[in-house]
Every structure is written in C-alpha cells, then in structure tokens.
Amino acid sequence: MLNPKEIRKDFPILNVNVHGKQLVYLDNAATSQKPNQVIDTLTAYYRNYNSNVHRGVHTLSIKATEQYESAREKIAKFINAPSDSLIYTKGTTDGINLVAHSWGLENIESGDEILLTEMEHHSNLVPWQILAEKNGATLKFIPVTESGALDLSQLNILLTSKTKLVAITQMSNVLGTINPVKEICRQAHALGAYMLIDAAQSVPHMPVDVEDIGCDFLAFSSHKMLGPTGIGCLYIKKAILETMNPVNHGGDMVKEVTLNQATWNDLPIRFEAGTPNIADAIALGTAIDYLTELGMDQVQAYEEHLTTYALDVLKGLSEDFIFYGIPDPTKRGAIISFYSPEIHPHDIGTVLDRQGIAIRAGHHCAMPLVNGRLGLPATARASFYIYNTEEEVDMLVDSLKKTLQYFNR
Ligand code: PMP
User: Fold this and answer.
1) 197 Cα: distance to centroid of ligand 1 (angstroms)
2) 309 and 373 share a domain?
3) Does 284 share its domain with 309?
4) Does one domain contain both 66 and 14?
5) From CA 120, how far away is CA 141, in angstroms rounded?
C-alpha cells in the first residue's frame, strides 16, 4: 500500500496554512498539487538549458529537444501508445477540440450520429454540439441511472450504423463513475463507429492502456496528474492520425515551404505548430516518472481504500447530506459529490475553507448532469489523491458537522 505520509514530504504546498489551519486539499479533480521533483524540473529547465526545440544545433537546444522528446516517450509508454501517436496539447479540452476540428469536420457528415453520455464534462460536449450543428449531425446520449452508472441497457438501441463517433468520459468528474470504455469501444467498432475517450480523470488515477481499450482517440491533462498546467496529451491511433490534417499552421509543423505551398512534417509534430510548451512537457515527464515509480495499480488501490473509508465515515452524515455515485468503491474513483437540501454547496465550501479544507462547489462543468439529470443547482465535491490521508477524511467529516451546527441544522 502507498504511504501517503512519505508522499506528502514531496509536496511543499501541503504545509501551507489557510486561515491559520494547515491546508487539507480535497480538490484534486479540479487540479492536483505538484511534487518538488516536478517543480525542480521546471526551474532546472529555465536555469540550465532554456532553449527552443527541434531547430537548434547548439548544445542547449539539443538538450531541450532530447528532454522534450524523451518526455513524450515516457508519457506514451505510460498509456501503452507509440510515441509518434502522442500529440502535445494544452490539455484535455484542447485535445478534444483538435479531434473535432480536424478529424470531426472532415469525417462527420449530415445524417451521422455522435453518441455521448449525460455525464460528460462540457469539454466533451460543446465541441460536438458545434460540430453537429455545422455538419448536420445528431447528438445522442447514453442516460445515467439513479445510482450514477451509465444505463448500458440502452446502448444497443442508441448505437446504430449511423453512429460515427462515440465520445465518452472514462471517469466522471462529478460522480467518480468508472465507465466500461473497453466494452463500449468493442461495440462501437463492431458497428463501424470511432471511439474517443475523455481520460482527464482516469489517466491520473488508474492504469490506462490504449492498446488494450482499442480506442481511436484519448485525451488527458497534465495538471490533474502532478504535472504543470498548460500541457496535456492526445493519443490518436496511427492509421487515423496519418489521414488527418493539422489545424494550426506555421513553424515546426512543415517540411518544405515555398511561397505558395507547404508540405507537412513527420508525425506527431505536424500537429504542434509553433514553439511548443517545452518546460511543461518536460515536467510532465517528471510527473510520469513519479507516478510510474509508485505504480498506477498502487495508486488506484490506495484511492479505492481511501474512498471506501470516506464513504463509510460519511454515512454518519446521511441524514443531512445526500451522497452521489455508485456505492461500490471498486467501480468509482476517489470523487464524492454531495448535497444538502438545506445549505447551498457554495456555503458549505466557504465554511470548510475557513477550516483550511479545500473542496469544490458548483456544477463542475457538467451542467447537463448536475442541473439536468440530478436536478441540483450545484454539488459540493471532495476529491482525493495519493497524498490524502484518513485523518484528512476525518477532518472533512468534523468540519461538515461544524457546518451543520453553524447553520443550526
Ligand atoms: N473532462 C473531464 C472529465 C474533466 O474533469 C476535465 C477537467 N475538469 C476536463 C475534461 C477538462 O480538462 P482541462 O480543463 O484540463 O482541459
């Protein structure tokens, strides 16, 4: 089992005081904290070998290029992908938009259907709304059951020969539900549809193997997995990537340029026009090293343990709060959304903050799920990572009790 007490020593921010209390950071689904190793990689780049990549013959540029490309290799290996199928992006949102603007615009036609779910983050919904409107396609949605799972009994009705793309989150950022993407992918492919996975919440918290899943596209963000903001990755199956046109044009992504035309560079940098986010890509590589050393099986097992503990102790508050998501902790990630009919989630978040506890309150960029399906104005959400402890879960429970007292409940 992971030892969170040891892990915590690597995260300087966990010693910060908030309103005179030591920070209890339970907003990991929004963004994770960063270990010294990642912070040091960033400063080492800027202090020692800051330079542009791919085009220099001088020592610093060669070193920056080596580090930038070796980070790509590490990240690709982490999800079992070939490194020439892994594009650096700004994050999950940017990756999904790239697929929509390149492959989507050219391949989704009038009459086609795009199958999504009711639990998608806006990042995996709005780009498809725009594309469907532009190209005359129709959006369909797999419903969410009362317990917070996908209602897969609907899949063979919703998935038809008209379905061109199935785009699904592997883990809900509101309910924590882990969706059976491998099985959905198999059924999508059987009908000739393509499969995109929003892996923003899954890649940081569980082993993800694109070869095993068989998906065509998979996007994730560095900042939710110990890495810096502003960088993420998009995996695209090689045979599809070879047919796709870049959406951004300029330096680095070209091979030969004349006054009137240009040819594209090799994969994947043909999709990385301009000076890329070098420092953050290299530091994401360090985050990958950190997680690889811990072992993603271990990361998932620890989070399952902590979620089991949290769901158990939170039961004591079930008269005052409704807790959402599948009760079985093996089928969900370390994300717990809850709601009190009496106290607005923003008020809960504010009172907890006064006690040094950071949680999130809102619609979590999943308005159709929170406002629509669950029928709530917002939820409060606690989300855990490798450095959170049972003591912190206890502090959450105590603080929620104090919140109830504060509001005279
Ligand atoms: N999808 C899911 C499931 C997410 O949780 C998030 C981040 N909250 C995103 C997509 C978007 O990620 P980013 O903001 O890093 O692009």
Assistant:
1) 12
2) yes
3) no
4) no
5) 10
Q: Which of 28, 88, 92 is the best mutation target for the ligand 1 pocket, counting ligand atoms within 8 Å of the beta carbon and taking the most?
A: 92
Same domain, 269 and 321: no
With a 6 Å cutoff on the Cβ, whether 179 touches ligand 1 is no
Quote the pLDDT of residue 55: 80
Q: What is the pLDDT of residue 56?
A: 81
Could you tell me if the CB of 92 is within 6 A of ligand 1?
yes
122 CA distance to ligand 1 centroid (A)?
Answer: 8
Is the confidence at residue 408, as pLDDT, over 90?
no
Q: What is the pLDDT of residue 71?
A: 98
Confidence check: pLDDT of 409 > 80:
no
Specify whether 351 is located in the same domain as 202. no
Distance (Å, whole) CA 282 – CA 189: 35
Tell me how far the alpha carbon of residue 233 lies from the centroid of ligand 1, in angstroms: 12
Ligand 1 neighbourhood includes 403 CB (under 6 angstroms): no
Domain termination residue (choose one: 236, 261, 292):
292
What's the gap in Å between 11 CA and the centre of ligand 1? 23
Please check whether residues 11 and 82 belong to one and the same domain. Answer: no
Nearest ligand 1 atom to the CA of 95 is: 16
Classify residue 88 by burial, with Cβ atoms within 10 Å: 0-12, 13-18, 19+.
buried
How far is 247 from 102, CA to CA, in rounded Å? Answer: 6
CATH code, domain with 383: 3.90.1150.10
Same domain? 180 vs 225? yes
Q: What is the pLDDT of residues 48-72, one digit of tens each?
A: 999 999 988 999 999 999 999 999 9
Q: Give me the number of domains the chain comprises.
A: 2
Say what percent of the chain tops pLDDT 70: 100
272 lines ligand 1 (CB under 6 A): no
pTM for the model stands at 0.98
Residue 364 alpha carbon to ligand 1 centre in Å: 9
Q: How confident is the model at residue 250 (pLDDT cuts 50, 70, 90)?
A: very high
- Cβ(307) – ligand 1 distance below 6 Å: no
Go through the chain and tell me how many residues it has.
Answer: 409
Q: Is the CB of 123 under 6 A from ligand 1?
A: yes
CATH code for position 144: 3.40.640.10
Measured by CA distance, the residue closest to atom 6 of ligand 1 is 200
Domain that holds residue 338: 4-26+296-403
Alpha-carbon torsion (300, 306, 309, 311), positive or negative: negative
Task: Determine, yes or no, domain membership for 408.
Answer: no
286 and 179 assigned to the same domain: yes
Catalytically active residues are: 365
For residue 238, being part of any structural domain is answered with yes
- List Cα–Cα distances, 324 to 145, 218, 328, in angstroms: 11, 26, 12
Residues 98-139: tens digit of each pLDDT: 999 999 999 999 999 999 999 999 999 999 999 999 999 999
Closest to 186 in 3D by CA, of 207, 206, 168, 173: 168
Cα separation, 80 vs 149, in Å, equals: 27
